[in-house]
Design goal:
Blueprint lengths: L3 E4 L3 H13 L3 E7 L6 H5 L2 E6 L10 H11 L3 E3 L9 H9 L3 E2 L4 H8 L1 H10 L15 H11 L3 E5 L8 E4 L2 H19 L4 E5 L5 E9 L5 E13 L2 E7 L6 H18 L3 E10 L2 E8 L6 H8 L3 H9 L16 E8 L11 E2 L2 E3 L6 E5 L6 E2 L6 E9 L2 H14 L1 E3 L5 H9 L1 H5 L6 H6 L4
Parallel strand pairs: 1-2, 1-4, 2-3, 4-5
Antiparallel strand pairs: 6-7, 6-8, 9-10, 9-12, 10-11, 11-14, 12-13, 14-19, 15-18, 16-20, 17-19
Length: 447
C-alpha cells in the first residue's frame, strides 16, 4: 500500500480523498494555488505545496509543478480527483513515466473513452446499445448535413472532447444545421482545444441514467447500481438520486451487468461511470467518465462501500474487497449540489462566508470544505458542497432533504439552496416524473 499520496485537486473532493487516505494510514500532500492557501484540505493535509497563482493554468493544470511537488515530498502516488487533470491521458502517462502511481485508469483507457466518437465505437463493439449517429468525427458541414438528413431532424452536434454541455448544439431543422455545426465546433475549440464534432440523433425526452463500476487489475469488475442524474440545467447536474425511480429491478440488474461486462472486456482498472440516455424503455450509451464522479456519495450511501478507499486499493494492485454477489442495495439517496451562485440568475457569487451552519441528524452527510470565515475564490467552479441524504424510502428521503435544506445556513454569499427547495416542492419531482429537460422547460419556466 502507498505511504504518501499527493492530491492534485482542491475543495470538497480534495478533502474527501484526504479523509479516505487518513483512514488508511496514508500520508497526504495537498498541492494548492495561492487562492487556496486557507482551504480546509490544505489545513488538514500532512504536507502542502503551493504550486502557482490563482488561475487554474498556473496551478491545478500545471503538470511540471505537480510532478515536482510529488518528487520533493516523496509521494508514491498521485490522485487527480475530479475535473482539472483527472481525465488527461498525457498527465496520467507522465505520472507513470516519472515513477509515481496514477490513481485512475491507464492512459490508454482515458484516451480511448475521452474521445466520444472512439468511445461510442468501442462500446458498440462490446455490446452496449448506442444512439444512431455518425460513424466517428464529421469533418465538414456538407458531410454532417448528409448524416443528419439520413437520420432525420432534430440532431445533436457534439464535441468529441470535454463535457459539461460545452460544444453541444441542437439543430431542429436543416436550416439551422450549418449555424449549429459552426457554433458547436467553435465552442469545442475554445473550451477543449479540439474543434472536432460528431452527430447523434436527438432524443426528445430522455432521462440521464449512469452506472457506477469499479474494476481491479486481476480481472474482477462489478457494478454498484445506477444513479438518476436527470435534474439538469444547461447540461449540468443539479440533483442526483439512487436508485432511479424510472427503472424496474430487472432493468437495473440488466444494465448494471452489461456495464460490468463491458469494462471487464476492456481490461479496465479503477472506478468509472458509464452514462446512458434512457427513453421509452431503451438505454443508449452517452459517454464514459474515467474518474470519480461528484455524485459518488449517493452510491456509497446505498451500498455502504467506500469508493475512494477501493479506488486507492485497486491502484495499489490489490483485489476488490467484495464480489458482485456481496453488493447489497439498501434504501434511497439524494444529493443536492450546493453552488455559490445566484439562485435566480445563476451568476457566480464568490466571497466571504460570514455564517455557516450545516444540517445534521440521522441519514445526513455533508461533503464540503467550506467553513465560517472562508472566502470562496472567484477562479474556480462554483460548487462548494453537497448535501447527501439517505432514507429507507424515496418519500422519506425527500422529506429529510427538505428538512436539511431548511436547516442549512450559508451567509455572506448567495447559494442555490432556494432552487433546491423549489425543485423538491414540485409535484412532478415528488412523483419522479421528469426528464433531462424538465428543470429548464417546466420548473424554471414558471413565474
Amino acid at each position: 500500500m502507498f505511504k504518501k499520496v499527493l492530491i492534485a485537486n482542491r475543495g470538497e473532493i480534495a478533502l474527501r480523498i484526504h479523509r479516505a487516505c487518513s483512514e488508511m494510514d496514508i500520508e497526504t500532500v495537498m498541492v494548492h494555488s495561492t487562492a487556496d492557501a486557507d482551504g480546509m484540505a490544505v489545513r488538514l493535509a500532512d504536507e502542502s505545496v503551493c504550486i502557482g497563482g490563482p488561475m487554474a493554468k498556473d496551478s491545478y493544470l500545471n503538470i511540471p509543478a505537480i510532478l515536482t511537488a510529488a518528487a520533493i515530498t516523496g509521494a508514491d502516488a498521485i490522485h487527480p480527483g475530479i475535473g482539472f487533470l483527472s481525465e488527461n491521458a498525457d498527465f496520467a502517462r507522465m505520472v507513470e513515466e516519472h515513477g509515481f502511481t496514477f490513481i485512475g485508469p491507464t492512459p490508454e483507457h482515458i484516451e480511448q473513452m475521452g474521445d466520444k466518437a472512439v468511445a461510442k465505437k468501442t462500446v458498440k463493439n462490446l455490446g452496449l446499445p448506442v444512439i444512431e449517429g455518425s460513424n466517428g468525427i464529421v469533418d465538414t458541414i456538407a458531410e454532417g448535413m448528409l448524416v443528419a438528413e439520413e437520420m432525420g431532424f432534430p440532431v445533436l452536434i457534439k464535441a468529441v472532447a470535454g463535457g459539461g454541455g460545452k460544444g453541444m448544439k441542437i439543430a431542429e431543422t436543416a436550416e439551422e444545421f450549418e449555424n449549429s455545426f459552426k457554433m458547436a465546433s467553435n465552442e469545442a475549440k475554445v473550451s477543449f482545444g479540439n474543434g472536432d464534432v460528431y452527430i447523434e440523433k436527438y432524443l426528445k425526452a430522455p432521462r440521464h441514467i449512469e452506472v457506477q463500476i469499479i474494476a481491479d487489475m486481476h480481472g474482477n469488475a462489478v457494478h454498484l447500481g445506477e444513479r438518476d442524474c436527470s435534474i439538469q440545467r444547461n447540461h449540468q447536474k443539479v440533483i442526483e438520486e439512487a436508485p432511479s425511480p424510472a427503472l424496474t429491478d430487472a432493468q437495473r440488474k440488466a444494465i448494471g451487468e452489461l456495464a460490468a461486462d463491458t469494462v471487464r472486456s476492456m481490461g479496465y482498472r479503477g472506478v468509472g461511470t458509464i452514462e446512458f440516455l434512457y427513453e421509452d424503455g431503451q438505454f443508449y450509451f452517452l459517454e464514459m467518465n474515467t474518474r470519480l464522479q461528484v455524485e459518488h456519495p449517493i452510491t456509497e450511501i446505498v451500498t455502504s462501500i467506500d469508493l475512494v478507499r477501493e479506488q486507492i486499493r485497486v491502484a495499489a494492485g490489490e483485489k476488490l474487497s467484495f464480489t458482485q454477489e456481496e453488493v447489497k442495495f439498501r434504501g434511497h439517496a439524494f444529493e443536492c449540489r450546493i453552488n455559490a451562485e445566484d439562485p435566480e440568475t445563476f451568476a457566480p457569487s464568490p466571497g466571504k462566508i460570514t455564517k455557516y451552519h450545516p444540517p445534521g441528524g440521522f441519514g445526513i452527510r455533508i461533503d464540503s470544505a467550506i467553513y465560517e470565515g472562508y472566502t470562496v475564490p472567484q477562479y474556480y467552479d462554483s460548487l462548494i458542497g453537497k448535501i447527501i441524504i439517505r432514507g429507507s424510502s424515496r418519500e422519506g428521503c425527500l422529506m429529510r432533504m427538505r428538512r436539511a435544506l431548511r436547516e442549512c445556513v450559508i451567509d455572506g454569499i448567495k447559494t442555490n439552496l432556494p432552487l433546491h427547495a423549489r425543485i423538491l416542492a414540485e409535484e412532478k419531482f415528488k412523483q419522479g416524473d421528469f426528464d433531462i429537460h424538465w428543470l429548464e422547460k417546466e420548473c424554471l419556466a414558471k413565474k
